[in-house]
Amino acid sequence: MTSKWETVKLGDALTPVRRVISPVADKQYLLVTLPLYGKGARLRKAVLGSELGTAKYRVQTGDLMISKIDARKGSNSLLPAELNGAVVTGDFLSYEVDENLIQIEFMDLIAKSTWFADLCNSVSSGTTNRVRLDAKRFMGLQIAIPPLAEQRRIVDLIGALDDAIEAAEVRSASVQGVQAEVLNDLISLPDDRPAFTLGDAFEVVDCEHKTAPESVDEQYAFSVGTAAIRDGVFRLDRAKPVSKETFDIWAQRAIPSSGDVVLTREAPVGEVALVSRSIGPICLGQRTVLLRAKGEMSGRVLWSVLRTSRYQTILSQQSIGLTVSRINIKAIKAIELPNLSVEVAEKISEISEALMEEIESAIESISVLRTLRSELLTALLSGAHEIPESYDEVMNAV
User: Fold this and answer.
1) Which of 32, 60, 289, 312 is the most buried (most CB within 10 A)?
2) Beta-carbon count within 10 A of 22 CB
3) For the residues 143-158, what does the mean pLDDT come to?
4) What is the DSSP string of 118-144?
5) Looking at the domain covering 6-145, what would its CATH class be?
6) CATH class of the 188-339 domain in this structure
């Protein structure tokens, strides 16, 4: 940290605000939610004044929002413009930020950071299910802040990374859109070629119905649950590292190998990923099944089929459950698959392989950029690195 940084109490930079409203029964109000882990304030729902319940405090754009219950888990954020005038309960604290000390956007970066969540945890207490942040002790916390010019540089640099991440996400979504459109045109159930069931063509292997213990010291393999399968690929950054001992137990039914397909059957239903040679050892996490070709159709073609809108609808229609949808093994085995000609199957494999490379490349770019953002933000907020003043000249020249 350089000598230019200043240590201030939060109480010197923040002013608590409670704007009590008098609800109008037939007027619509917005309710705010603060998701965990620094994801930012979002709209919970819109309700009439007669339905507000204990929500009676109005918040404004730029207010620092702190959840008494989950501040220690990153439920902290500045209120965005689209939620201006929203209403919250007493479990949410709101503060006006002194912009002579802290730039609004810089305060948002601080509020969403893991170290700020740790600070909030240090002034939170109570029993397991009743832990609350102590508002008085919170105001006594101290943070180190750079000069306003340095704050702006940090905001600009992190903003540029956010723009790059967004561009990579748009690229990934665009390629997936092209893939879905092409595959929807190729894959159908021709009247002159009788369909067969998924159970006829694929071995269906269920997962262990218990949670694999995460390993910190030994990371031999990954347990891929539903969170680690998105957009047609495995997201190992969301998978759980496990030991060799755990892997051997959880892979007893089948060790996923190249060409296998892993399908999520709950929370959500229908995400699929194709196992490649390069992925390394993985085992099935909860609520997933492995689909292994018997010969009638390849795993790559099945992966392509299940990702089409037609089959996503079929998977959804075959699901059960009132609150959380799930599809059982029997229903998965009964799904009818198109009896494709050799030429069409080869065309699907060729297209899928090419587009899959683009999707994986985009997702890898997103992962790298997010890691860079996290590490860079940690270094910049700690004062371990300072952005030189020459950065301003570079930005002005762009």
Assistant:
1) 32
2) 6
3) 94
4) HHHHHTEESSTT--EE-HHHHHT-EEE
5) alpha beta
6) alpha beta
